[in-house]
Amino acid sequence: MEITESPNVGPLPTVETARKLGVLPEEFDRIGQILGRQPNFTELSIFSVMWSEHCSYKNSIVWLKTLPRDSDRMLAKAGEENAGLVDIGDGLACSFKIESHNHPSALEPYQGAATGVGGINRDIFTMGARPIAQLNSLRFGDLNLPKTRRLLRGVVKGIGDYGNAFGIPTVGGELYFDESYNTNPLVNAFSAGIVEVGKVAKATSYGVGNPVFIVGSATGKDGIHGATFASEDISDKSTEKLPAVQVGDPFMEKLLLEATLEIIATGYVIGIQDMGAAGIICSTSEMSAKGEHGMIIDLDKVPMRQPNMQPFEILLSESQERMLVVIEKGKEDVINQIFDKWDLNCAQIGEVTAPGPDGVGRLHFYRHGELVADVPAHDLVLGGGAPQYHREYREPAYIKEFEQFDADDVDDVETDEIADVARHLLSHPNICSRRWVYEQYDSMVGTANRSTNAPSDAAVVRIKTPEVGLSNKSIVITVDCNSRYVNANPRRGAMIAVAEAARNIVCSGGEPLAVTNNLNFGNPYVPEVYWQFVEAVQGMGEACRRFSTPVTGGNVSFYNQSSDDGPVFPTPTIGMLGLMEDPSHQMTLNFKAEGDWIYLLGPPTDDIASSEYLYSYRKVKASPAPLFDFETEWRVQEAIKTMIRHGWIKSAHDVSDGGLFVALAESAMAGNKGFQIDTVDRYRTDAFLFGESQSRVVITVSPDKLHEVEGYFNEGQTFVRLGVVTAADFVINDQTILTSAEAKDLYDNSLGRIMA
Amino acid sequence: MKFGVVVFPGSNCDQDAVDTLELMGQHVVKLWHKDHDLQGSDFIILPGGFSYGDYLRTGAVARFSPIMNEVIAHANRGGYLLGICNGFQILAEARLVPGVLLRNTNQQYICKNVHLAPQSRDALLTAGLDKPAYKIPIAHGEGRYFADADTLKRLNDNGQVLFRYCNEAGEITDAANCNGSVENIAGVTNETKNVFGMMPHPERAADPALGNTDGRLILEQALKAVLV
Fold first, then answer.
1. Distance CA B164, CA B112 (A)
2. Annotated catalytic residue, options B33, B70, B85, B140
3. What range defines the domain where residue A632 resides?
4. Exposure string (b/e) for A448-487, b if CB count within 10 Å is 16 or more?
5. Is there a domain that residue A48 lies in?
6. CATH number of the domain to which A701 belongs
7. Residue B20 and residue A447: Cβ atoms within 8 Å?
8. Catalytic residues (chain B) (predicted)?
9. Which of A423, A417, A408 has its CA nearest to residue A733?
10. Count of domains in chain A?
11. Domain end marker among A358, A380, A402
């Protein structure tokens, strides 16, 4: 059928219009070749969002393909479904994923963060999995800036209001401040859900004549070109794009969750996909391309919030809380009844059509009786016709400068300076308690959070849903990335992020299974930024291979940079899923009893590079990433697992930001105890107490287990017997550094005082 | 005894209430908000959540749900009714218990463990509680209990205050008043002491696997009910 200029279609666009929509001239030519004619405005809009970085991964996919994607637990590989799917035994699978909402949150923190939470949860329940736990990873600029505090306040309230009403607990996360995020905060949301193997819904479409439904919220003009917006740098013009930010309705999402799980349970669903980025066009094209069929869609039948919506607006709208569903023909009444029960929109907007003789399904969109777009589904999507680019990359000049750092140029701490550093670190926004944040999240709904009264490095959530009942097993989940390390050395920094995530899971009693990643970087067209990306992906891939934790999917967010501040720290956030089969393996981080021995497992070093101490106390910003050695890491993690299974240790807490001292302080405060330890003369005192070299864990052992533990350690572990747990106060080398009361006040209340 | 847990659109603690009561060996049914049948339930629970999104005012819409006609009739007959969190807000909106629930003084949603001191010596839910303090989680943005002076006097004189926020030792202090409630009030009952409202979530502290069973001690009081 011919598409000509008309009131519904508009004038044919030029290459200049294409450029304004973010389509490169060569891409514009390619669209013409695919269609065999010039695209109209609606079609050009379709290609512009589907070929945006956000949907097509065109600048990242070449490297993402190098990540390990296989293990015998994988039920869906990266990119195959809306989220990764991992076999956790007993006929159950865990679906989990992390996704960014950075750009919307930079402009409108409340709605940006809220809809990020909504979007990631839809990715999970669209597979038929009921979400059971959420995490988030947040990064902001200098907290002394009023703007940063406004963003933090808005993002936390947005996550809280949405997640709390939706009714899935937020059980953990991370929060990090650095001035590189002054303009571009990062908001990464993680969700994990449980589904029975064999009852997983697919994002596909086939069966000629099968009806296509849109369900959930009505479609409005919000979020149009949101995906394109997320694919460019933030500038002073960005606030003009406010309509590109969506508005969330958690009540609607809760109803949609229940209704979606009910219709999937009927067995009549052929395919279902949530509408996130790029709205109707994304779900129709991805489902059709996967099922190798076409669709005919009447846009007039889409429930709309406002009149006079243009075809491209309906197709691209990112109105939240919507799903596209293809069901077996003849079962329309069943789906209508379920959505009626939940008082939700449910409108049939079209049907599945046969692929052409070339095997390609086409999408035909009508408005007011007129064909307004005719596009091949395959050519729109990743893995189909969407472009894939090899970008130029080049090592940035600063890397060499960072490598030249010499710790000998930094004075070690004097004995009377230790308390000063201790106070600085315990009250630092990157280290102090996140209580001000997490108390705004419902962390307990679902009665499954095993960490509420048993703190640990990763969150432990038992597997329990109305659909699958209560299991003896728990998932153990964490999000981790120290982006200062990644900036200093993207390859090693990304490896450390994976290693730390695994260490957190192991220290909580779990076994690491798989990874979802959120790759937050600057502009990929800047070779130095792209080098950070390439190096980080390679480091992550190597670490994930060695830990046997394949990458099941995730999200790439480029263009986190501004004209004023340049790119953010390269931030490849790792979301890791672990499994705890036996509840008795759960391990906590709090000190338990006076007189228990405190050990450092893993090698002490003279390394102070990239530590919070060096960066913010000594104010030395140019240094390499901390030391990391995979073999050492593996040996330490295996030792922790062994000792947990033997019941030899009473607490385990990994040494990370702020070094050994902060790890000791956190374990002590969580247990309302103190400690008395000695440093080791061979090492710099600052490195011993505050250095952040990797692969170290603080454990406690009751006196009657001392012989087993040291006997085991002597078979090949590096360790230091540091001292003992006491009733109160922090004593180092016979000097009281801090009283428990002062430490607790600094640690617990510093963030709240800044935010008050 | 048969428990009925009402499910409003937006309820999200309904399943937790069911799971907890079943863990305690009780017979529980879910009651759909559009129905008019309490299915012979002896003890009705209005669970936590965000009924109808709570966009207007917490609990303001739910009280008009079809099933609330039967729930109110059940209460007026002397039947037992417990509202937890959003359920308490709905009870207050329906005037089944005195007082209102306002935004927390810090203007933020708060989720954490707090301590409750049981008060009334003759209300079913608290008469048998003998510890000075019970560790129970709260999770709400609008839980600041308020009532005028006359109402407060009546509540105090009649033993209608169920719980007050306290510290670990059971002392009722300003510092322990997590949301700014008047006189630290965390839960109240009606004059006839068959309708109970409380902001904290006992059902979240009932399973030994979660490391706290103080809530179970509270819910077990309900099992002492003598049904008429």
1. 16
2. B85
3. 588-756
4. bbbbbebbbbbbbbbbbbeebebbebbbbbbbbbbbbbbb
5. yes
6. 3.90.650.10
7. yes
8. 85 (nucleophile), 201, 203
9. A417
10. 2
11. A380
The whole-angstrom separation of Cα A288 and Cα A378 is 8
**ipTM, 2 dp:** 0.97
Q: Read off the tokens for A663.
A: 């790890």
- Residue A628 in domain: yes
pLDDT for A106 equals 93
**A44 lies in some domain:** yes
- pLDDT per residue as tens digits for the range B117-166: 999 999 999 999 999 999 999 999 999 999 999 999 999 999 999 999 99
Best mutation target among A130, A433, A442, A472 (most B Cβ atoms within 10 Å) is A442
Superfamily, domain B2-222:
Class I glutamine amidotransferase (GATase) domain (3.40.50.880)
Tokens of A68: 């390990």
CB contact under 8 A, A165 and B50: yes
Mean pLDDT (whole number) for A45-71: 92
For residue A472, is it within any domain? no
At A240 the pLDDT is 58
Residues making up the binding site of A for Mg(2+): 99, 123, 274, 555
From the list B20, B53, B137, the residue facing A444 with the nearest CB is: B137
Give me the sheet containing A92-100, strands edge to edge.
A74-76, A84-89, A92-100, A186-196, A130-140, A170-177
Q: Which residue of B has its CA nearest to A453?
A: B211
Mind listing the pLDDT tens digit for each residue in A182-234? 999 999 999 999 999 999 999 999 999 999 999 999 998 876 766 666 666 76
Considering only CB atoms, B15 lies closest to which of A161, A255, A466, namely A466
Cα dihedral across residues A457, A458, A464, A470: positive or negative: negative
Query: Which of A349, A380, A411 is the endpoint of a domain?
Result: A380
